[in-house]
Amino acid sequence: MSIIGAETIGTAILILLGDGVVAAVLLNRSKAENSGWIVITFGWGMGVMVGAYAVGQFTGAHLNPAVTLGLWVNGTIPGSEVPKYFVGEFLGAFIGATLVFIAYYQHFADTEDPGLKLAVFSTGPAIRNPVFNLLTEIIATFLLVLGILAILANKATGVSGLNALLVGLLVFGIGLSLGGPTGYAINPARDLGPRIMHAILPVPGKGTSDWGYAWVPVVGPVIGGILGGAAFWWWWPA
Question: For the ranges 10-14, 86-90, 154-158, which has the lowest average pLDDT?
């Protein structure tokens, strides 16, 4: 399977399960309505796990431009492959967000608050302060990329086949610990791709796509991913 094809499938699974759990918790008349933050964070962790197991054998299942950049900085992948990963990751995000829109269409129509509808597709800060919001995304994504590389460096873990599960649990843990301030995008494709689809799709009663904030969950993860890859290259012996 090609890099673009595998990353498209894996990221679509990630976004379908991740945005899907947010829709389940936030939208009116869903059977999971108001089930809480721990359900959302666990759903995102399982989305990462399933997407990674689905296509990890083909591309390593980056599913995230920040991870791709971290692995490039770390020397794991050549620069010539980076654009292919990006294309697949964003295509997958578009597809996953569209599938969530279709699955929850009736619930979007039955939900009055446009903010809840946007939250299904993309992140937003609990307290809007671009500097601190940016720093939160940098810290969380730094931990994500550093943690992934540390997990992959453990040969025993790789032999056991538990890498994808552990990465999913890492995402779950980041969500519980660092997700409160910004909703933890930690993935430019995860936030920007669905945000674009929110702007394009005929979501009933939607408001703006909050483009004034949209740069934070892109720039923060990019910086954090690069720093995480560089830190692993610097601190861990080859």
Answer: 154-158
Domain extent at residue 74: 3-235
In sequence order, which ranges of 27-121 are alpha helices (DSSP H)?
37-59, 65-73, 82-103, 105-110, 114-121
Q: Is the pLDDT of residue 5 over 80?
A: yes
DSSP 5-34: HHHHHHHHHHHHHHHHHHHHHHSTT-TTTT
Q: Which tokens go with 57?
A: 């054998």
Are 219 and 130 in contact by the 8 Å Cβ rule? The answer is: no
What pTM, to 2 d.p., does this model score?
A: 0.96
- By the 10 Å C-beta count (0-12 exposed, 13-18 middle, 19+ buried), 135 is classed as middle
The distance between the two most distant Cα atoms of the chain, rounded to a whole number of Å, is 55
CB-CB contact of 52 with 171 (8 Å): no
Write the secondary structure of 152-203 as one string of H (helix), E (strand) and C (coil).
Answer: HHCHHHHHHCCHHHHHHHHHHHHHHHHCCCCCCCCCHHHHHHHHHHHHHCCC
| C-alpha dihedral sign at 2, 4, 5, 6 | positive
The domain that holds 123 is classified in CATH as 1.20.1080.10
In this prediction, residues 173-197 reach a mean pLDDT of 98
